[in-house]
Amino acid sequence: MCAAWLYTRPQELEGAGSVQYTDADGSYQIHLAKSSERFEPPKVVNVKCEPGEEYRFPLCVTFYDSRTGENVSHSMAKKIKYSQISFEQPENSAYPWRATEPVYSGARPDAALTSFMDFVLESGSSRIIWTLGMTNGDTIRLYLDMEIEEIPVMHYYPEDTLMQTAEELQALVDEVDRTIPPETIVYLHLPAVTYTGDLTIDQHPINLCGSEEGRTVFTGHIYVTTMAEKRINYFDHIDFLGSRDRIGISAADRVHLTDCTISGWKTGVLAYGDTWVNAMHCRWENNQIGFHFNADNADGSRVSHTQYTGNQFIGNGTAVLLENVPTDISLKFADCRFAGNEVDIDNRCRQELDISQAVFE
């Protein structure tokens, strides 16, 4: 009788990254990790941060049957009564770690619950504690230690660096390739000039920042072939103005565009190979094809952002051509405007889209 009481009394379990759990129906491995893939989660996660930047990544709770290895998150999620996330972090931090409410996410369908962690460099290292209260009274605590490391950053400005012409800019990019360590983030703060030649970014990822005093303009072809595993080339506040027989930007590595104008090209932006390209608050005008997504060699691991908020597609032949998109996650075109295009969206690969908040004229 005493043994039966001990077996049925509520359990309290704790583990770093994972825990073995048994209830009346079976035995399970519970994982806490940045994805829902089947692997042994680390107990410590090292995160590299750039000063002044905001960061977010998902944490997933996933259940596996200990005997078969089968993912049983859907059935086990019904046994979770409540879920809470807390942090052991410096007191009175001006930038404390934060977490979104743990919920089921269609973007990570194999996980029982997903929550997004929000932090900055100044948040500092922290322990994330995820507590699960089960319907049978059991309590499970999983934790991960987050170690924050500052990323080195280099800034180049036109006041002290030659970058007035396309040739000078290419020479600077080539110098970065030769002299700057791969882990260093590089910003080129461009002057308000028109670059008439082509530019190739083929080794070290580069962030191109347009002038704050006027518009920086490129009329040549931009090649991005860096193939950096975890880095993104950011292009901000720039006009790419071209001719109808050329491609404006061809990207075989990840590129994010913000507040840019892409106008007058045969193809404004081409994403191809193993890559992901995102654009927000950009104007795509008078192109034969505005944005062409044809990442036919990508496996989805390089997807970085599926929001395409605030873009305007005006007077293009085809505004958006989706030929190969390496994700099943919906692309969201919130606050986008499509006007005067012959074709607004040519969705050849039948990519899932959210155009509920877009305007078509």
Task: Describe this protein's structure.
This protein is mainly beta and 361 residues long. The protein has two domains: 10-150, Immunoglobulin-like (Sandwich), CATH 2.60.40; 153-360. The chain has helices at 2-8, 73-77, 166-179, and strands spanning 12-16, 18-23, 26-33, 44-49, 54-65, 80-88, 98-99, 113-120, 126-134, 139-150, 153-156, 185-189, 194-195, 199-201, 207-209, 216-218, 222-224, 233-236, 238-241, 247-251, 255-258, 261-263, 267-272, 277-280, 283-285, 289-294, 312-314, 318-324, 331-332, 337-339, 343-347, 353-354, 359-360. Strands 13-16-19-22-25-27-30-33 form an eight-stranded parallel sheet, with no helix packed on it. It has a seven-stranded parallel sheet with strand order 14-17-20-23-26-28-31. It is globular and about 75 Å long.
Number of helices: 3
Count of the domains: 2
Please identify the structural class as seen in this structure.
Answer: mainly beta
How do the strands of the widest beta sheet line up side by side? 13-16-19-22-25-27-30-33
Beta-strand segment tally: 33
Shape: globular
Average pLDDT metric: 91
The percent range for strand residues is over 45%
